[in-house]
Batch of 4 targets.
Target 1
Amino acid sequence: MNKYLLTIAILFLVPFGVTANSLPDKVLELGYTAFDFKDGLTAEGFKLRISSNITEHFFVEVKSSLVVEEQFDFQLSTLGAGFKANISDNVALYSKLSFVDFSATNYDEITELSKLANGDGTNDTGTELAIGMRTLLFNDLEMNIALEQLDIENTKTTSLIISGTYNFNQRFGVYANYSHESELSIYTVGLRVNF
């Protein structure tokens, strides 16, 4: 975890000088997501994320990932609220606390899912805490880096998340997201709508 904190600290030292645009206040993202488990198993599905400012410093966010495979399926959904501090028009620091709902079926052979899903895997709940930074680079490129700690039924995992969005215009863009923790890597690519 110390290397993750060091990565974030180094990125805070990078100069950010773009001021022509500002970070979007409301976004909707829909993407294809791939899960790469440490034991070699892979899974694919879809991810939806909606985030909206409710005041200058507070925002709400809803996320849901759905994977349906031949051998198993699972869904991870979060509903959260966060605080952000705008350093400038194009740099913001944020923290977020979310309620998590996790459900899985036919997951017995998947160690990583078994650790998250106690019992029969139906509707296990928990929390997710995140801290991070968003910045706008080169007018059209938004970057995000964050640390997230997921706690479901007293099982904790910490992930480093790096994502980037290229905005074609003020309304539409494409994004890529990479999340890594010791047992799992998640890759997501998709479309974004700023509104």
Note: The longest strand covers residues 73-88.
Target 2
Amino acid sequence: MRLLIIVSCLFISTSSLFSQPFDDDFIILEDPISGMLGRLGGAILDEAIEQQRLQAQQRQEVEEYTQLGIEYINRNEHRQAINVLSDAIVKYSSYGPFYFYRGLAESNMNQNERALRDFDLARQKSPGLAAAYIKSAELNRQINGVNKSIAVLNEGIQRIPNNADLYYNRGRYYATINNHQKAIEDYDKVLKSKSDYPGVFQFRGVSHLFMGNYSYAMINFNMALRHTPNDEQLYWLRGRTYEKQGNLLKACQDFETACKSGVSGACDSRKNCKL
């Protein structure tokens, strides 16, 4: 099955979301007199078997709706995806991922207000769906500003406290408003959860650079280069750090490497270099 990859790991396995019945109509209630299941013997057992069968059918249908919606999105047939997922929502209105994927299709069609509403519904219906908070924060930045994005991610972190993606994204937003100390704290939490998280060393290094913590910035850029040695942007950032430390020779070597690769700003950084 082809999966749509957004930000990081956005496809949600429906099996984990069906660990509990998602529709109250299919919950087996306790007998009000005895407080115990099975008081009516075979009748309750037959009903339980029938409910399991219906739940299995629902799981299959939900999986089919989900896969079809993703297929349409992958083929850039976003209107068809919206139609399929809207039909699915009519039948399973409490299933958060349907709103999430419909929001993706809407955002791809620049229907940002609709998409934001669906991402917010997705996180309300499925509070453990980290991707819904991330996409809601992304659109809120455009529509309502960065502080709203941070508020959305705060809610996500409160509900899913060990999710590295939420901390990483909140760190990026903190950095955009120059709250680099908060950004670094979030990047630290990301690395505690996943030591090879893509991009986090680079952005933690940038925040240290802005704060004047040049030694820490250097450590982070070197770590980032170990993971992605062909990322020329990192040479420019490390060069700027060498320059701040007064090591013009090494700074110019990094500027030259970045400049040859066409990194924006790297060639201008060579102005004090004797090449």
Note: Confidence is low (pLDDT under 50) at residues 1-42.
Target 3
Amino acid sequence: MEYKKPFDVEFLNRTQELIKDAGKTKYEVTFLLNCLLGLICLPIEIYKEDINSSFRLENDEVFSALTDKLNCYVTITEGKDYITPYTKLRCLRNGIAHLAMEAFPNDEGKVDKIEIKGSTRGKNHSIKCIFNFSVDSLKDFAAFSAEQLQNFIESKTKKIQ
């Protein structure tokens, strides 16, 4: 299947559809983590690499929206003085990407909660975070992330036109 729209727009549309259907799969948590990793990596990588992209995050507006929502799931264990919305998302990205996670099953053996431990480094400091999600809150955060990124792209596209 080809991408008919710009990659970032089509990627977000498809990811939103995948998140809606996540509960239908046997591996819901794995599915959601994969979606969330893509949703976090897309703006981080474009932000770092392409200053002319429609994704350029002036004033960290998307990072701030995402981390405001993320705050109820995170405990900062090191580097509190250096944390920014960007570094908080980097910690989450790194925790997922490096598989620094632990799943906690309920009495039926189904994953009920997941803990993600992530870290990142600055010039003279390190930041470490622990993220705790229920399956519902993981799905909610993934859906919220996709929606925020979609809104941001649409608003930037309208400004360019």
Note: Helices lie at 7-20, 28-49, 61-70, 85-97, 135-160.
Target 4
Amino acid sequence: MIAASNNVDEFRDLPRWLQRMIPFISVMLSLLAFSYALYLYNQESLEFVQWVRLIVFTMISVVLLLSAIFYFFRAELAWKWLIGGLALLPILLLLQLILFLMTIIKMMIDSLFQGSLPEPVRLFIENYPSTFDIVILAALFIVGLLWLIQKLKKQKTKESEERLWRTNHRL
């Protein structure tokens, strides 16, 4: 109930011209998502990843289209659906992250079976760290260590002050 009222308050805080533009924005974003979904569908060979993208973009387009339709019945509901449709975009980012991790894992497994390091890892080891990098890392380590010591000292001082205050107020 509280979350719903916050979305309504957010909608009411928007400028009036933006409130009136929500159906137009929803329809335009829906058309863009549908056109990309059709583009993906018309590809020669769809892999599993493209099918997932196709499904997610189709869901985004349907939700945004429903947002435009709901505007005529209840504008606050249209705002919620617009935000909900756009909230599906992180799924695509997560999909890309999973693909990236799977590529790294595949490269590691291939290199284990071949008995050699992958090319990017080998180049990294050969070129890193230089003496300049070691100096920078050492300086960052020292600064971090000093910061940590300072934080611990402040925490210890604060605890001792609290103990002293409590002992003084007990008497």
Note: Residues 139 and 145 are 10 Å apart (CA to CA).
